[in-house]
Design goal:
Nucleoside Triphosphate Pyrophosphohydrolase; mainly beta; 7-stranded mixed sheet; 2 helices; 7 strands
Length: about 130
C-alpha cells in the first residue's frame, strides 16, 4: 500500500438477486452518494475481519465474507483510498440491515445498478458486483 493510502473494504451483500447499497450522509467527499457498505481496515486487521466488523457496527448485520471481487484506487481530496470489494452472505437469521450511519438503503438488481449516483470509488467495482446478480 502506498504512503498516504487508506485501505477500505466493502461488501456486496446479495439477497434474492439484489445487492445492498447504502447512501452516505451530508458532509465529506461523495456526500449523498450511494456505496457498497464497509469501512476502513484497522492496522494489523485482516480485510475479511474488518468487513464483518464494519457491517456489524454500521448495519447490525452478521455476515460471512467470501470471495474477493475487485479493487479500485481512487484519489479523494487529501487522501488516496484503495477500495477492496468482497462478496458477502448472511450468516445468521436476518435481522438487519438497520441504518446507524447512512441515510438510506436500497436493494438493487442488475438492471438497477446504474439507477443511483454511486460514490466515484465504487463505480469501477460495479461490473464485478453485477456478475453476482441474477
Amino acid at each position: 500500500m502506498a504512503a498516504g493510502e487508506i485501505r477500505v473494504v466493502c461488501g456486496a451483500l446479495v439477497r434474492e438477486g439484489r445487492v445492498l447499497a447504502v447512501r452516505r450522509g451530508p458532509g465529506g467527499s461523495a456526500a449523498f452518494c450511494w456505496e457498497l457498505p464497509g469501512g476502513k481496515v484497522e492496522p494489523g486487521e485482516d480485510d475479511r475481519v474488518a468487513l464483518a466488523r464494519e457491517l456489524g457496527e454500521e448495519l447490525h448485520l452478521d455476515v460471512s465474507v467470501g470471495a474477493y471481487l475487485e479493487e479500485n484506487v481512487h484519489p479523494y481530496p487529501g487522501v488516496q483510498v484503495r477500495l477492496v470489494a468482497y462478496a458477502c452472505r448472511d450468516r445468521e437469521a436476518v435481522v438487519g440491515p438497520q441504518l446507524t450511519e447512512h441515510t438510506a438503503l436500497r436493494w438493487l438488481g442488475r438492471d438497477e445498478l446504474h439507477s443511483v449516483e454511486w460514490a466515484p470509488a465504487d463505480v469501477p467495482l460495479l461490473d464485478a458486483v453485477a456478475i453476482l446478480l441474477r
